[in-house]
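pinning this so it doesn't scroll away 📌
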Amino acid sequence: MEREYGSDYTMPTWAIILWCIIVLLQIIGMWKVFVKAGKPGWGCIIPIYNVYLMCKIGGKPGWWALLCLLIPFFIIWVYNMISKSFGKDEGFTAGLFFLGPIFWPILGFGNAKYLGPYGDPAAFQAHQGKGNFDFENKQQL
């Protein structure tokens, strides 16, 4: 007796709907986080540009987006800088990385306020003023 099955590569409709809901939650949460940080919310849906914006929110230079794309481990560092920029700790960073669809909306819709890169604008300015080369302005600081 031969059994007939559908294609081995089909997903059930409920799984597709669930996946779309999860992706939508993460996009909405990231959108709100970007807006809180003074960046365009729509930037979260543009590949590569969203990584660039996350680097800027976290206080890293824009060329770090290239590092994140070439060496994916660097995105964890950027997530950590984003959580610090909103006054959160390393535990929240782990949440952003492992449970993004839950933690991005918490950050976006919660009462966390953008404190500036690194979460401490004075520390950020002090770090920037140490003679570092700013690749975007192409000048010695």
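📌 and the second one:
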Amino acid sequence: GIAAPMVSDFPLDKYIFLADTTLTTPFLDASNVSFKGSGPQARHPLLWKYWYDVVLPRMAKKANAECLFSPDGFCSLNTSIPQVLTIHDLAFLHFPQGISRLYLEYYKYYTPQFIKKAKHIITVSEFSRDDIVQHYPFAKNKISVIYNAADEQFSPLSYHEKELCRQRFTGGVEYFLYSGSIHPRKNLVSLLKGFSWFKKRQQSNMKLVLAGRMAWKNEAFTELLKTYKYREDVILTGHIPDEEFRQVMGSAYALVYPSWWEGFGLPVLEAMQSGVPVIASNNSAIPEIAQGAAYYNDPANDEGWGRAMGLIYKDETYREKLIGNGLERAAFFSWKNSAAALHQVIANTVS
């Protein structure tokens, strides 16, 4: 992610990773990087509050930190050290049904306090910036957009690599791919209905691979899958290690991303950078990220997902055009550029 170029491109700066547990990272052997960990592990709202407002201020003061950067939407309300805070999106406000009540109340109560406390806010798209300012107008004069990027490991694969991956996951058959958690906000019930429409009309042996972990409140999805006519053509991989996932992404016939709401939509960028055509929702930040390099569909239009899959399947010229546009668009994003922008924000915050 952004840490590697931050560490390597600004070697005169000192970076200290403060965490609630032990940390394994390739940057810890760099001369300008150190690590300090202290429990308890904060995996619950009450422990979040304790760690950020009691443990973190103590650790930061002892480390003589000049600025605290938090990439996860939380910050300390109990320190005078200036803080830079990343808020990826406000999905908890738009899809509260997708999060447990205790977590939801925590986000709703503390997010405005975090925004007021932080010296500067970073978000990952102009769409997300506008959304944050609309809900929290006091963020307007201290918020910047710094885009995410895809890991460099995502790149077009050779035919041989694709063949090996397909043999492993689908018995050698081509497949459409969804990447992300199995979660109501990701709209996978609509995707299954669209895939049914495609299968009925194309008489294809194409598979649908769903690459991601089961998340909160996916009952509607699991119930539909029990009686799904094409269940044998749907493959759930669960969590996949990074190197293996690069292969799964790069070997896909197309990525289908029907999400209701995204502050960025990283799988879209990973697919474009891998030379994989993208079918995606026409909402939230997705058109900003993909621009003219994706085929867009209204996420509520079940049949539209099937029609889009059919178009990509039948029209190889159009598919190749999407691949070329995607590779060109993906080149716009880089962690190196994002790291330089973040470094400037931190420098301004310290000074």
